[in-house]
Design a protein that fits this description.
mainly alpha, 5 helices
Amino acid sequence: MSGRPPRLDATALDQALNGPGPRGLTIEDRVRLLDECFRALLEDRKPSRAAALFVAGGGLSWLKGGGSLARDYWRVVLPRSHRTTSRIWAALADQNSEGEGDENAE
């Protein structure tokens, strides 16, 4: 196995989207899509089309090309960073719970 990173292939996702998908997603956006999809599946619901395409497109590309699913395909791992995916997810959850608290304060 060579030391080079795997070549990224978004063909499956691009085909499902009828063209290349949005390129401007932040890491927080990507973590939100993962969270949405995972929660929907656990609750026996269908995730949004965007979340489903993001998760499935990355997963199918990973199965075909190998590599690191989180780093290479979902791009939720930052190189040499202490800002882990779980920390980002926890911060987003905190923001959501603070927002819900504000709505219930009335």
